[in-house]
Amino acid sequence: MKIQYTDEKIFTQQQVTELFLSVGWISGRYPDRLYKALKHSSTVITAWDREQLVGLVRVLDDSSMLAYIHYVLVHPSYQGKGIAGTMINQVKEKYKDFPYLEVMPEESKNAAFYEQFGFQMMKDGAAMQICSFS
């Protein structure tokens, strides 16, 4: 298995929907919005096993100071193979000149994963959100 990575937004709506639903993410239930959001994101790095989309990282940035990793996901059949780590390292390289590269794991149990790549908990920080999806 040779995984190919790209930052070209060559994915289809169906491919991203299937990937998001494979990990049980609610965004997959809104295929039109999800596809549009990804196409308009600052950076999207994808991982491919031939024609199958198996991983994705989405980054939002302000072009100079802050880049925010919003999504990191890998299809369950491909987890544990270093795909997420490879994509995160690609993001770190792309944004190495930005003073801030941030990530907000949806679940605190995922913080240890990001710590492997040099991310640290923000002192006195607290994640906050308004979510209109149910």
Uncertain segments of ≥5 residues (pLDDT<50)? Answer: none
Order of helices and strands: EHHEEEHEH
Distance from first to last alpha carbon: 37 Å
- Largest sheet strand order: 1-2-3-4-5
CATH superfamily: Gcn5-related N-acetyltransferase (GNAT)
Principal-axes geometry comes out as globular
Integer count of domains: 1
The third-level CATH topology is: Aminopeptidase
The major beta sheet can be summarized as:
5 strands, mixed
The secondary-structure class comes to alpha+beta
Give a description of the structure.
- The chain is α+β, with helices and mostly antiparallel strands.
- The protein has a single domain, classed as Gcn5-related N-acetyltransferase (GNAT) (Aminopeptidase, 3-Layer(aba) Sandwich).
- 27% of the residues lie in helices and 25% in strands.
- The protein has 4 helices and 5 strands; from the N terminus they run E-H-H-E-E-E-H-E-H.
- It has a 5-stranded mixed sheet.
- A hairpin with a 2-residue loop joins strand 2 and strand 3.
- The mean pLDDT is 94.
